[in-house]
Amino acid sequence: MSLQFHRFKNSIKQYETISFVCQYYEDMGTETDELFPISLDGIEIKSKINTKYGKLVDTLKVTVIDKEQGIFTLTPTVEKLPLGTLEVDICLIKNGSIAISDTFSLNVAKSETMY
Questions:
Q1: Which residues are CB-contacts of 34 (< 8 A; sequence separation ≥ 6)?
Q2: What is the rounded average pLDDT for all residues in the chain?
Q3: Nearest to 88 by CA among 64, 56, 65, 63
Q4: Higher-confidence residue: 43 or 18?
Q5: Any idea what DSSP says for residue 80?
Q6: Domain 2-109 listed as CATH 2.60.40.1220
């Protein structure tokens, strides 16, 4: 079981709005590398952003887009993310156990232009 990120962008400017589109799927390991979506029925999704030192920056808002196809979005709830490299952690929980956990880096650069 894996997570796939659609339209993934791992570098943003500080005041830029961002949302991560994710899909929960099974990679059957076939020669064609076919991906089979897994339903989010009975799955709890948790996600947060931490500094590289482990300090909590934000708990991301989870929105299920297509439960049967395993598609959901993660959106920050804070207006401004701190500068630097942040760690985004996603955890899918099924029957009280972690089904999958994934972490990726998000680089936040200073916004030079403010309106």
A1: 27, 28
A2: 85
A3: 56
A4: 43
A5: -
A6: yes
* Domain boundary assignment for the chain: 2-109
* Residues 6 or more apart whose Cβ sits within 8 Å of residue 96: none
pLDDT(82) > 70: yes
Q: What pLDDT score was predicted for residue 24?
A: 84
Q: What whole-number distance in Å separates Cα of residue 61 and Cα of residue 48?
A: 9
d(CA 49, CA 89): 6
**What does each C-alpha distance from 110 to 27, 30, 75, 80 come to in angstroms?**
38, 43, 20, 11
C-alpha span between 88 and 45 (Å, rounded): 13
pLDDT at residue 68 tops 80: yes
Question: CA-CA distances (angstroms) from residue 87 to 1, 7, 50, 53?
Answer: 21, 18, 5, 9
pLDDT reading at 75 higher than 60? yes
